[in-house]
Amino acid sequence: FLCGFCGQEAFPVIALEPGLIQDSIDGGEGTPTSMLSITGLSLKELEPHLAKTNQHLTENSNLQVTLQNGPRALVVTGPSRALHGLVVNSRKI
């Protein structure tokens, strides 16, 4: 709980473009937030995608795995717009 709370506090809700929100909803991911649950990928499989996304972000906005619920159940925290970018790139996997 505390980890999730800290993630929400570190990345407050910001206004997102309606098209970005609609894309996320249409993709079945729901409304973008600062926390993203990823299932079906191991940490090793996810790391290259995180690194690619983080190349486009400032250091204090990098996406990070903040919770590992199982070998293929991860939670990534960061700015909601950046998480949406990760999701869009992950749809191709």
From TrEMBL:
<dbReference type="InterPro" id="IPR050830">
    <property type="entry name" value="Fungal_FAS"/>
</dbReference>
<protein>
    <submittedName>
        <fullName>Uncharacterized protein</fullName>
    </submittedName>
</protein>
<dbReference type="GO" id="GO:0016740">
    <property type="term" value="F:transferase activity"/>
</dbReference>
<keyword id="KW-0808">Transferase</keyword>
